[in-house]
Amino acid sequence: MVNPRAWLAEAIATYALVFFGPLAVILSVVAFGDGLSIEAIIMIAIGHGGAVGLMVYAFGHISGAHINPAVTIPMMITKKISIADGIGYIIFQLVGAIVAAFSLKAILPEIGAKVNFGTQGGPSELINNSVMAGLALEIIFTFFLVTVIFLTAVHKKAPAGIHGISIGGMVFLLHIVGVPLTGASMNPARTFGPALASGSWEFHWIYWVAPIIGGIIAGVIMNYIYVKKAEKEA
Hints:
Layout: H1 4-32, H2 38-63, H3 69-77, H4 83-107, H5 109-114, H6 131-154, H7 163-178, H8 188-198, H9 206-233
């Protein structure tokens, strides 16, 4: 049986991420100028990590607060949710991301356009603009994000109440290290909404392929080695 209330929760939670995360990117330019100062990176990391962590606490008990197709797909593969619900989740995640990005475009059209409304721009000069390095990094980043999700939000023996701060904290960490390298997506919906609003599609495919690969690898490993064992013992 499908759960439209959970789909709506995914849309709202993803809206929050794709509104507040890119808004932090935009405001970092206002506050600290062009370029990536440490202050700007911290501000961006707080915007994304805070949005994700708080939405996990707000909507986790309703939909699981995936907020990310690269989380939903491994949840479907490991049968934590049905295929029908998973498809609904992904559609509503993308809808939430699109509405959020166009909200920013309506509110801050000029300054937002300077940073393509927070769209990730592909592999940076720090990794020699290497597509392979960018792919590898986004796979690794998403692997660890989904690992934290499975072991704190899905695992039956995870300590109660730590999932939001753990997942939000991981998103914060991944932005601290990832923003200067790839823009730190780990989430196709997070990149898709701003790309649609800005018309910036260069390297866009990386932010679909790599997070989904990383998410699937993490989900399958964590589920079959750790989560299923805990379910049998519960």
